[in-house]
């Protein structure tokens, strides 16, 4: 422990003798050292090794270099040192973590150790951050005396979670403005390049696919320039030992608590060192920092694992559940919902909505969500965004009356809204045309017939807060689906000065967070689900306000296998919203069985999204049975330990295990069936070898050792998209 309640320091992590900081959790360790020059180095990050002098890691580095010795210290060259927060060109020529334009126009900074202090974990002004009662923060202050600049590393230890977080403060101590051009949240140097790089990428409708490739010399990474974290890449990056699989091998990872433009990179230098960084994307970013002002970066979450991808997932899942997701919902059972979007799209009336809600209730559903089309003159996607007044003609009365009727049916009520957007023909835009993001003197670009409101402006934020407050105060709404269906183009704001235009993307996200923070504090019992055309903003920043996120607009069960596998690598299964939808699927036209769709959707938060009024009696009975069975395993599926299982053919099979208390649920899907095949076996991991497990399917008892070493017999698939589930109860003995 570094900090004891009451404010008394129990154990300073800094050794004056070795000039070393040792930050240690139950199983992980981050060690930093102050070099004779005053520069701050990263000695070690990984599995706990204890408080030993690790300065030899730097002292043993001896390589030929054309760079000058730093501070005239023989053979001491910064470009060879694993630095904790590197600046550029003094004389380190590698990718910097921070780069500033100083008062005289130069860009070279010289950051040296000043002091440090220990405190409880602090919130970051204007930004989401992770919190836990056991967390402790070490603040290390670096200073550039000549340029009157101070950079602080705020490193927090979450000892029970084996997680370190870090954010950066940049302070202008001078009397004239400086400009921040680059300010990464995290930077780690590794003295090797023998790694694979793992990121999560894709596109709309196929988000979060795991992309793994060997590192090569040079710059490699992922980013977003869209004003949101994006469908294309997730703000996550990891280095893997080249032999890593689900249960073996070492991993070092970073995940950024941020929802805007980001950059995550691995840079391998000429000496086979690897620099891993993540932070706000420097592309189209700068920040004017006036005298005496402080800039705060987003927080980076750093997780390492020694036992493969499943251990990495377990640490992220536990951490985000206990330290980031709003506590009111972090471990609260989520409702089974019915969303009308794919059932009706914009074409509905009161009778249709009530009939869907009534049928959903009969089948066992608990929450009815009214999607797009309930407000203004919104009968297609060309109008009314911004005019958040209910269409009483379409709803057959007030929204309050509709909700009351649905509540009488026995369903809670949820509502779709897209607050960040405005339609050109809306009353809001006609009144406030200057409230959109646009380049002055250029015709603004429409995407999906809509503009983006300029959330960098406080008056826009205040308008959204007031509008949402009125909506939630006047109506018994239990759930909000917060959508965002276009990215930022024509980046410009009439409220910002010329030299501050590149601040817009970050100011937008700060404005968004202010609105979300205010609304979730005013209405803490309203379940917020964020969406951005699916998974276009599935990131820890949004998780800090919305306990669950719409994983993808693609609801096809087979497409969802890869999407949900990637998302579940770092995000808890209770944060993934997953629905059973119609067949043929509306996105890809595929036909899958109700059983397969159910097994896949039940991996996360479970719901339905098709026209219940068109179902046969057999289909209704099957859905009713599906829901009844799900309710017996819901706690395990939403909050149990999650593990990916190794399969025989990873191009054609997916398998996962979820367990909580004594319940173990195993799911397996064949994508394609093949002729003349014989049964294969599926070995489990994570079960207790010395316990026995009772099968709910056939009543047989089987030991954990058998499940782990011999495995379950997989049925031979009789058709494509063939899914199987096993349910076990752990017992002490036979």
UniProtKB/TrEMBL annotation:
Residues in Glycosyl hydrolase family 36 N-terminal domain copies: 38-289
Keyword tags: Glycosidase, Hydrolase
Pfam families, alphabetized: Glyco_hydro_36C, Glyco_hydro_36N, Melibiase
Catalytic activity, EC: 3.2.1.22
Protein origin, superkingdom: Bacteria
Entry's Gene Ontology molecular function annotations: alpha-galactosidase activity
Positions that bind substrate: 204, 371-372, 448, 481-485, 531, 553
Top EC class for this record: hydrolase
Catalytic machinery residues: 483, 553
Domain Glycosyl hydrolase family 36 C-terminal intervals: 659-724
Catalysis performed (reactions): Hydrolysis of terminal, non-reducing alpha-D-galactose residues in alpha-D-galactosides, including galactose oligosaccharides, galactomannans and galactolipids
InterPro entries referenced in this protein's UniProt entry, alphabetically: Aldolase_TIM, Alpga-gal_N_sf, Alpha-glycosidase_related, GH, Glyco_hydro_27/36_CS, Glyco_hydro_36, Glyco_hydro_36_C, Glyco_hydro_36_N
Gene3D superfamilies: Aldolase class I (3.20.20.70), alpha-galactosidase from lactobacil brevis (2.70.98.60), Golgi alpha-mannosidase II (2.60.40.1180)
GO biological process assignments: carbohydrate catabolic process
Record's keyword annotation contains Hydrolase: yes
Protein family according to the UniProt entry: Belongs to the glycosyl hydrolase 36 family.
Protein name as it appears in the record: Alpha-galactosidase
Biological classification of the source: Bacteria, Bacillati, Bacillota, Bacilli, Lactobacillales
């Amino acid at each position: 422990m570094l900090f004891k309640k009451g404010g008394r320091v129990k154990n300073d992590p800094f050794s004056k003798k070795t000039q070393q900081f040792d930050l240690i959790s139950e199983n992980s360790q981050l060690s930093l050292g102050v070099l004779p020059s005053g520069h701050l180095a990263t000695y070690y990050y990984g599995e706990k090794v204890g408080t030993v002098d690790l300065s030899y890691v730097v002292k043993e580095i001896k390589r030929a270099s054309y760079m000058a010795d730093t501070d005239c210290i023989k053979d001491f060259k910064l470009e060879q040192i694993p630095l904790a927060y590197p600046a550029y060109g003094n004389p380190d020529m590698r990718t910097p973590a921070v780069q500033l334009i100083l008062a005289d126009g130069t860009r070279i900074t010289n950051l040296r150790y000043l002091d440090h202090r220990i405190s409880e974990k602090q919130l970051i002004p204007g930004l989401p951050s992770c919190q836990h009662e056991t967390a402790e923060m070490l603040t290390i202050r670096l200073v550039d005396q000549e340029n009157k600049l101070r950079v602080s590393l705020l490193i927090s230890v979450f000892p029970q979670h084996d997680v370190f977080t870090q954010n950066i403060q940049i302070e202008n101590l001078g009397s004239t403005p400086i400009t921040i051009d680059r300010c990464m949240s995290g930077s780690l140097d590794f003295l090797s390049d023998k790694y694979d790089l793992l990121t999560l990428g894709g596109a709309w409708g196929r988000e979060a696919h795991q992309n793994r490739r060997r590192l090569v010399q040079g710059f490699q990474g992922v980013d977003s320039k869209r004003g949101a974290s994006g469908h294309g890449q997730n703000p996550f990056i990891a280095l893997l030992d080249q032999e890593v699989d689900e249960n073996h091998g070492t991993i070092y990872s970073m995940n950024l608590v941020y929802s805007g433009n980001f950059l995550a990179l691995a840079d391998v230098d000429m000496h086979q060192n690897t620099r891993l960084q993540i932070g706000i994307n420097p592309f189209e970013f700068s920040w004017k920092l006036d005298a005496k002002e402080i800039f705060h970066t987003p927080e980076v979450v750093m997780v390492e694992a020694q036992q493969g991808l499943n251990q990495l997932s377990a640490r992220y899942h536990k951490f985000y559940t206990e330290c980031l997701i709003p506590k009111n919902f972090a471990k609260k059972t989520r409702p089974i919902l019915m969303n009308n979007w794919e059932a009706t799209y914009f074409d509905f009336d009161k009778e249709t909505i009530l009939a869907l809600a009534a049928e959903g209730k009969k089948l066992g559903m608990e929450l009815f969500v009214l999607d797009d089309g309930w407000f203004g003159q919104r009968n297609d996607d060309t109008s009314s965004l911004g005019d958040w007044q209910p269409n009483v003609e379409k709803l057959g009365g007030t929204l309050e009356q509709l909700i009351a009727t649905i509540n009488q049916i026995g369903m809670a009520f949820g509502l779709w809204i897209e607050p960040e957007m405005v339609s050109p023909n809306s009353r809001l835009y006609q009144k406030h045309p200057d409230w959109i993001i646009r380049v002055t003197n250029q015709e603004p670009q429409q995407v999906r017939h809509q503009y983006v409101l300029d959330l960098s402006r406080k008056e826009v934020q205040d308008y959204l807060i007031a509008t949402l407050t009125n909506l939630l105060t006047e109506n018994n709404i239990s759930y909000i689906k917060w959508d965002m269906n276009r990215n930022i183009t024509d980046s410009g704001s009439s409220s910002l000065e010329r030299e501050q235009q590149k601040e817009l993307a970050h100011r937008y996200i700060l404005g968004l967070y202010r609105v979300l923070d205010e609304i979730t504090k005013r209405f803490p019992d309203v379940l917020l689900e964020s969406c951005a055309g699916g998974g276009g903003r599935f990131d820890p920043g949004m998780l800090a306000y919305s306990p669950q996120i719409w994983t993808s607009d693609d609801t096809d069960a087979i497409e969802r296998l890869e999407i949900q596998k990637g998302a579940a690598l770092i995000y808890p299964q209770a944060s993934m919203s997953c629905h059973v939808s119609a067949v043929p699927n509306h996105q890809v036209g595929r036909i899958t069985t109700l059983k397969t769709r159910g097994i896949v959707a039940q991996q996360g938060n479970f719901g339905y999204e098709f026209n219940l009024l068109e179902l046969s009696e057999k289909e209704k009975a099957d859905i009713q049975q599906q829901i009844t069975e799900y309710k017996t395993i819901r706690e395990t599926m939403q909050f149990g330990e999650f593990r990916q299982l190794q399969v025989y053919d990873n191009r054609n099979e997916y398998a996962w295990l979820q367990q909580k208390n004594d319940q173990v649920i195993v799911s397996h899907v064949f994508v394609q069936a093949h002729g003349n095949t014989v049964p294969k076996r599926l070995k489990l991991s994570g079960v207790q070898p010395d316990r026995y497990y009772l099968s709910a399917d056939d009543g047989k008892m089987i030991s954990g050792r058998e499940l782990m070493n011999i495995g379950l017999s997989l049925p031979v698939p009789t058709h494509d998209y063939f899914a199987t589930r096993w349910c076990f109860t752990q017992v002490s003995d036979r």
